[in-house]
Amino acid sequence: MSDARTPGFATLSVHAGAQPDPATGARSTPIYQTTAFVFDDVDHAASLFGLQAFGNIYTRITNPTTAVLEERVAALEGGTAALVVATGHSAQLVAFHTLMQPGDEIVAATKLYGGSINQLNHSFKSFGWNVVWADTDNIQSFADAITDKTRAVFIESLANPAGTVIDIEAIAKIAKDAGVPLIVDNTMATPYLCQPIRHGADIVIHSLTKFMGGHGNSMGGAIVDAGSFDWTSSGNYPLLSEPRPEYQNMKLHETFGNFAFAIACRVLGLRDLGPAISPTNSFNILTGIETLPLRMQKHADNAMEVAKYLDNHDRIEWVSYCGLPTHPNHALQQKYLPKGAGAVFTFGLKGGYDAGVALVSNVGLLSHLANIGDTRSLVIHPASTTHRQLTDEQKVTAGAGPDVIRISVGIEDAPDIIADLEQALAAF
Ligand SMILES: *Cc1c(COP(=O)(O)O)cnc(C)c1O
Asked: Where are the domains of the chain?
């Protein structure tokens, strides 16, 4: 490959960050299953601890297998650097820890993964980080929610569970005008379908557990730094702009420039909060990413087939798949995810709660469980599982009314997925 050529997405998915192992020639990235790394000498150790040199100390902070995964995710998203951690939720914890002081606020979209709504409403509040909710379908509500305490705007590119799309560029402009970074959770889309940094995101978050790893076998999370945000001039991000006493009063933004956020997340958040990924999980996710473009296209193509089938079925009341031309977000999907509308969406059954329970009880090929982004097709009835503790009214607001089924369409043959739904719908 000549240096002048920019590799394409599929090439980056296979190669970014990886080289044959310098010690053994191993072509596949080895699993460096070790806790710690031997120093060359005392001076080398001192320079690593003082952030004067890059290198490995201890797997809580860096690991060579995980480093390849970090470079690959950064390359696919078009960021300057990335940090990989144990789960998507810990990626959010570490990212917000780097931005927030007690009393600060996050403006977040109402249409978010249920686990993220819990994290923001409960655990983050116990740190003194307050959430102000803005309506995904009303862009102006984001501008209205911003105050002088706002330190971040948080949205999902393609929202879990309903698969709706938000106008990323409009929100990015509001965040930029207010001088706060836009954080986009890109878990459901993956960079194959949407690259939020190209549309103005400053930070991208992933649950690598889902489509990135893609095989339902390993948990992981990522934080990608776009390198676009000025962390110093407002004085609102002291972890990045102020001298760090434990690192010889180094200022992280001044020292590390356009990858300072990724560094700060590692040397402050990951160091002290501790959610490191296991090297074996990094290896599994790296292997998954090699086929990301092939899998995501198949996921999206299958989901379109399944959505069309359900849309024409007389036992189905409605289908929320933004790839369908009748969906209110279809134009946004065409703009932000032109290759496909993802693989996760919701639909409503005639017959309400009992019909929902009956459907998930009668599937065979499809698995009834709480996950998305597996090679296998998955279904869940939120009202009887993830959302069962809510009142009926709260369920409806959360998009988990009694009739709602969420499906994550896998990469099996579409006619087989449809046949399984057909027999399940005929069984009650
Ligand atoms: C699953 C998920 C998360 C949380 O990720 P974990 O790896 O389960 O911690 C965050 N955001 C979205 C959109 C998700 O689907």
From this structure: 18-288, 292-426
Q: What residues in the chain have per-residue pLDDT under 70? A: 1-3
- What are the tokens at 180? 């706060």
With the most atoms of ligand 1 within 8 angstroms of its CB, the residue from 73, 89, 155 to mutate is 89
Q: Is the CB of 207 under 6 A from ligand 1?
A: yes
pTM over 0.85: yes
* Residue 107: closest CA among 136, 128, 82, 127: 136
| Model pLDDT, residue 2 | 56
Q: What is the pLDDT of residue 5?
A: 86
CA terminus-to-terminus distance, the chain:
58
Q: What pLDDT does residue 386 have?
A: 82
Fold of 292-426: Aspartate Aminotransferase, domain 1 (3.90.1150)
Gap between the Cα atoms of 254 and 216, Å rounded: 40
pLDDT computed for residue 398 by the predictor? 72
- Looking at residue 395, what is its pLDDT? 80
Which pair of tokens denotes residue 375?
């090679």
Kindly give the interhelix angle for 279-290 and 64-77, rounded to the nearest 10 degrees: 40
Q: Which of 193, 205, 209, 223 to mutate to test the pocket of ligand 1 (most atoms within 8 A of CB)?
A: 209
State whether residue 43 is helix, strand or coil: helix
CA 3 to ligand 1 center in whole angstroms:
36
- The token duo for 153 is 């705007």
List, in order, residues 6 or more apart from 337 with CB less than 8 Å away: 157, 158, 165, 189, 193, 194
Pick the CATH number of 18-288 from 3.40.50.1110, 3.90.1580.10, 3.90.1150.10, 3.40.640.10: 3.40.640.10
